[in-house]
Amino acid sequence: MSLASTAQTAFAPAVAVQSTGYRTLPAPPPPPGAALPTKNSLTALSTPTTHVTSAALLAPNSYAGAPGANPNQNTLVLYDTSGQWGWLGEAYGVMAGNLVTHGSKYTLHPAVNYVAGELGSYTGLIYIGSTYDEPLPTALLDDVLATTKPVMWMNDNIWQLSARAGNFAGQYGFTPMFFDFSNALTVTYKGVALQRNALTVPTGLLQTTIDDPTKAQVLATATNDVGGTINWATRGANLTYIGEIPFSYTGPNDRYLAAVDLISKVSNPAMLSRKRALVRIEDVGPDADPAELRAVADYLYSVHVPFSVAVIPYYVDPNGYYNNGVPVFQHLYQAPNVVKALKYMQSRGGTLLMHGYTHQYSNIANPYSAVSGDDFEFFRAHINSANYVVFDTPVAEDSALWAHGRIANGEQEFAKAGLPVPAIFVPPHYAASAIDYQVFQPAFTARYDRGLYAAGWCPNGACGTGTPDYTRIYGEFYPYLVRDIYGSAVVPEQLGNVELVEFNNNPPRFPADILYSANCNTVIQDGVQSFFFHPYLDISYLKQIVAGLQAMGYTFVPANTVKQG
Fold first, then answer.
1. What's the pTM?
2. What ranges does the record give for the region Disordered, renumbered to this chain (predicted)?
């Protein structure tokens, strides 16, 4: 799988998608100019409100943790909903909730619907402040100030908490101050320099000062282009504060990784500290070269590396794109040498995965060639005039019945070839509809991908309208096992793959780039370093990545091991 993406302008009403294959959300708009905080303090900016009932009251919705999550932990995730950008708050809440599942189960709902004493039922709280001066209930502020449980607060409205506290600095040892709009493009966390996209700069970064070093500490700093440093994340007593929302304009080396680690410390303070790695051999269909498959298996076996194989069970080239105009349709059972090679890979530590049914859609370019391995299967896409891949809508036939049919056909192909039916699914190009993801969930024990989500949708209508808005799709990648909003355990893949040439505004990506990203991921406790590799590439690239990850102290394990937690 190779994936190009779309870039859009900050604050555009649609999802912003970067050229690194990470479909990401935009940042919230800048604070209103007339109400910009000054360097004096934020404590007098707002007065707390009484409880406000949302116009569209959403019942709290609870979600299970991932396999291996601490059963004694239960996290409350709150998000903003008001104003033109309320949909962003909901999306940020979903992203935070997905990450929380690595450590605990959680409940997700709008902050304005918080009721007094609610926090007492949870072991921790995460609040994402995406709307400037969201009318937060006084009960929420009071309960946060009274609790000793871990609390994470992101971005806006910390001034409401500060004003309510009376002596915020005395309680937490730091003071929230003002929005800094300098060009802070690097965040340093645990000694690792992480990137911060320039598109986030206009939204500002709320600065803090440390008043009492015995109570508070700076966890991460942002560095601007003139060498100045800004507090990016601050912890005082039980409160962790991040001065922005780190879910916008993310990428493989992004400050998002620092937030991922900090979230895990709220969801499960007793998080394990493991260093595991995964490698997936990609796009293996009936047209694969058996010799290349055996060579990959032999190498990985020789260095004690278990691996996965993403298998496309039915190869389709409906227009003869690669065969001089003559259509090709080849079932896996019609390629006996490939089947033998797959069995050999299994004997060498390989786990077979289902990578769609055909990994393409119909006889039309979607967006490339209509050929298996090239195109999307469960979502429509096109290439625009600026050479970006644009995600359009689910396919015309999309329904639970249609998706079930694709999965059943794929399972039959494995059975006919005498191969075990895989328990893990890899959605082609990591894209499908909300309907499709709900079909994948009971059909497989796990997905192995980065999720694609649509604004307005959560199970049981607990978000927004309850209807997915495919004009506002966004993706999220994970550096450890989660159970996402669709209910699936998701085995992570966040490092990408080797690409030798630029395509669709994606730069080439070599082993050094993947290992650079891996070094950024070392900030995550219990992180899994995960990449995929196409077997038709020079095997030396695979060897460089494997050796590099092992040198970092990571141990390769089977995907089945990770999906168990």
1. 0.93
2. 22-41
